[in-house]
Design goal:
This protein has 79 residues and is mostly helical. Helices cover 73% and strands 0% of the residues. The chain contains four helices and no strands.
Length: 79
Amino acid sequence: MTSYAAIGKAVREMGGGSRDYDQASREEERALLAICAYPAVREVDRLAKAGYLLEIEARGELDLPEHMQALLRSTMSKA
């Protein structure tokens, strides 16, 4: 909820309306999907990714089938 409130506040401060809020929300969703899809190789990267996604999931934001598909694909070996 804090993230959404911050996005809404930033959009209002810039003089934007609901269309701008929707655009910001879509950009946030694309960023989350990119994080899910990122194939973290080094242990430090895997831990950072897992920790961040656990926080997101605890807020109920990791709920789309696309998130899970991207996460699973990111763990598959390219070799």
